[in-house]
Structures are given as C-alpha cells and as structure tokens.
Amino acid sequence: MQPSTEPRIIAFLCNWCTYAGADLAGTARMTYPANVRTVRLMCTGSLDPMYVVKAFLEGADGVLVGGCHPGDCHYTNGNFKARRRVTLLWEIMDGLGLDRSRLWLRWISASEGGLFAQTIKEMVESLKAKGPSPVKAQMIL
Amino acid sequence: MMPAEAFQLPQQEKGDLAGAVEALCKSLLESKALELMMVPRRLPHGSMVQHVLVKDMKALEGLDPAAPVMLVNGGTLLARLSRQDPGASLGAILRPCEIRAFVELVKLHQGDRERVLILGLDCLGTMEPTQFESWAEKTPQASRLFLESMLEQGNLPEGAPGIRTCCQACEYPTAQGADIQLLLLGAQGTGWIALASTEKGKQALEAAGLKPAVVPEGREAALQELVSKRENFRDSLLGQVDSELLPLEKLLGELSRCINCYNCRDVCPVCYCKSCVMDSSTMEHPSYQYIRWAKRKGAVKMPAETLFYHMTRMAHMSTSCVGCGQCSSACPMGIRVAEIFRAVARRTQASFNYVAGRSLEEPLPLATFREEELEPR
C-alpha cells in the first residue's frame, strides 16, 4: 500500500464555537476535504500544548486550534490564553526549525459553518503545497 | 522600592567572606531578627557544601557562602520552607539564580516571599559538583582561594575545575530581588558590604547592629565588565546552540543519548507540577500501543517518546527557565540540556517580553493575556 499523500490535520475545536461551527457545516451539507480529524475540547483554553506537540510528532501535517471570537469565549477568556499557548508553540517550532505555519489558530463561531469549511479547504491547500511534514521522516523519534 | 542602603559587614581578616557572613548570621540570630537560616555550609563529612537549615548558632561553623557549587537549586528548597506558614522567622542565603527560581515559584503559589528574608550573594559561577568536591578535598580553603582569584584576577585559581557553561553565560550575577545583597564584586579592600534593598532587609541589618557604609566605588565598573563578558559568552553560545543543537535533526542527535530518566525534570526548580504528566496514566501505554505505533511508523525507539518529553517540558516550563543549569549537571548522559532549554527559553520569554525571575510584579506569561495582542495568523 502506498502511503497517503493527502495531508492529515488534527483539529482541536472548542465545544461552544468552532465545534458547533463544524457541526453546522455538516448539517448544512457543505462540503470540505475529509483530511481533518477533530478533537472536541470544552474550551481552547483547556488545550495543553503537549497535545499539539504530540499530534505533530505522530505525523500530523497540520494542526488547527479553533475557538470562539475574542470576547465570545463561553468561559470569558479561555481563547486569549489559547492564543498565548499557540504563540509559545510557534516559538518552539521556530527554534527547532519546524514550519510554524503548519499550526493554525482560527476564531470560528457556531454560526460560521461556511468559514469552517473554507478554513479546512485553505489549510489543506496550504499543506499540500508544503508537502508532508518533515517530522514524518523521523519515524522512530 | 526604597533606595538601597549600604552597611558594613563585621570586619574580619581581609578577604574572609565566610567569617564576615558567619558574624552577620550570628548577629541576625542573636538579635532575634531571624530564628532560623538556610545557609550554604560544608557538611560534617567530606568536602561538599549544601544548604543547611540552621537553628543552633554553633551549626554556622563551616558556613561557606563563597563555595562555587550548587548541588540543589535553593529556590526549590526555600519554596518548600515557605509554602505554608513555617511558624518561625526564616532567612536564607541564596545565589541569584536561586532567588530568580524562587520568584517564579512564588508566582506559581508554591512559596511565599513575605515569609522569608533573602540574603543574596553576587555569583561568580559554580563548578560541576563532583569536580568541585574532589578539588575542595585536596585544596585547603578552596572557596576562599576561588573567591580571591575570581575577584582579583578575574579568573580561576590554578588547578581549579572550570565554571559550568551555564554560569559563564549567566548575565545576572547580582542578587536582584533579595532583601539584602552581599556585595562581592568591587568590594576588595573595602571590607564586605551588605546592601539593604527592602525595608525588611534594612531593619534586619540595623537589628544586627551593622554600621552604615557606602557602596564600594569600583563596583559598578567590575559589574559592567563581568556582565558584558558573560553576555558575549551567552550570545556566542546561544548562537551556536541555535544552529548546531536545536534544528530537529541535530536535536535528535543530541537526545540520542537520552535514557528517559527524567533527572532534568526532577532537578529543575521551575518544573512546577506536583505530579508530572510523564508519570501519569496518560503516559502508561498498553503494550499493544507500541505495536500499533511500530506498525504505522515502521519503527519506534524504545524507550519511546523522548522528543515528546523534552518538547513538552519546553512548552510547560521554558517561560520560567532561569538558566541555572541544574538539568545539564544532573544529566547522566552529558546531554547539553541547559543549553538547549536556555536557547528555547530565550525565544519563548522574548515573545512575551518576559524575563523569568525578574520581578514578582510581572505575571507568568501563560497565566495572563491582553485582549489586544498576538493576532492569529
């Protein structure tokens, strides 16, 4: 079997906004590439950066963190904390020579099913242009 | 912040720092300004120097504040002593990186700054503990010899082991954040000077009966010289680490010696979790998980998840890393852990305009946020 050349995305989505947005994209029968595996969190503020690290080390080509728009967090400010953690991860990725643009942070509300579908389309295109994550080649880590 | 006030330490034979600090500690204990003190002291057997919590004044004998060795980062120890109300007035003699680690732990609610009086020393660097031990064993008055040579010639006495890389790259040789700073740099010839930088510190020194003095004239120049020497070393070291150690393949090469013992985590003063995720059931994989990984990837290094462990630590503690170097000293495989983490910490701390241990007022970068910042990309 040939290894798939399709990029794989792990998406950490907050329960109240982006996950609901993804749900809306589905119930509205919008189409978007099937390259994404979602992990539902109660809040992006509860995302330990180690899970993003793990996703990349297990061979994810991209990671999407999706939360509520600033000011809309169900828990007041979890998304602001997530934004700092993503910044932290970008710095670590830069240091290790990993491409920080494989890690996306996006604000997508429960009503923005179209934006979710569009975001996945854009992310898949961007990752296809980059090719497979170089971490994948380091298979035994 | 009150303006710093200088006091003269009890006069001893020239150059005898241990004697002067011992006299100061005695006065602090006698005057009841403090009931107990944690001090670096030669242990009764052997030549190693460790932190000792002293109640009995007789136990101050063997006090060795100039010993160039830091077996355990005292920030961790002071946090342990101040986490709950200790029920006694406590003082501690610490190095700058121990104070900075303590500051981080206070912000993590694991220690209490109000419960302790900190006496900080200028730091001229430390040696690898085992190297210090064997040098001190065969060298009478090793610490004093070290101090004199470093202050007067600016380098190590002949035959002494080298200063740890991390110390050579440390740009914080003064005890910022202490209640009382014991000034060594530029203090040759004037006798040792204690600088009170808080009201609490000033009261303690007055209670101990110390007389006012002035900051030695040569201090600023000596300090500038040392700091710029260390900054140069730091910049060239970290530049080298950035290109020769951090890029993923180079990093994997360095970590190829890692045995997943987690010593670097255990000795890290700012690896703050009470129970580490690496020891939790999250990481206790069922046997078939390894098989599954090997089937998917083709091969899995055993023990697995070495890079994951180190990257997780980078994400968890690099914003609080004070660069004390304990991780490198504790690594049984000679991995340059501290160099790697300082280089990563420089990036992560800079991105939040944060310097670990600089101030109790600055919130931890990952425990705070601003609404207008860091737009998503």
Describe the structure.
The complex is a heterodimer of chains A (141) and B (377). Chain A has 141 residues and is of the alpha/beta class. In chain A, 39% of the residues lie in helices and 16% in strands. Chain A has a four-stranded parallel beta sheet, sandwiched between helices. With 377 residues, chain B is α/β, with parallel strands linked by helices. Chain B has 14 helices and eight strands. Chain B has an eight-stranded mixed beta sheet. Chain B starts with a strand and ends in a 26-residue tail after the last helix. Classes of the chains: A alpha/beta (141), B alpha/beta (377). The A-B interface holds A 48-50, 53-54, 57, 59, 70-71, 77, 80-81, 83-92, 94-98, 101, 104-107, 134-135, 138-141 and B 242, 246-249, 251-252, 277, 297-301, 304-308, 311-312, 314-316, 318-319, 343-344, 347-348, 350-352, 365-366, 368-371, 373-374, 376-377.
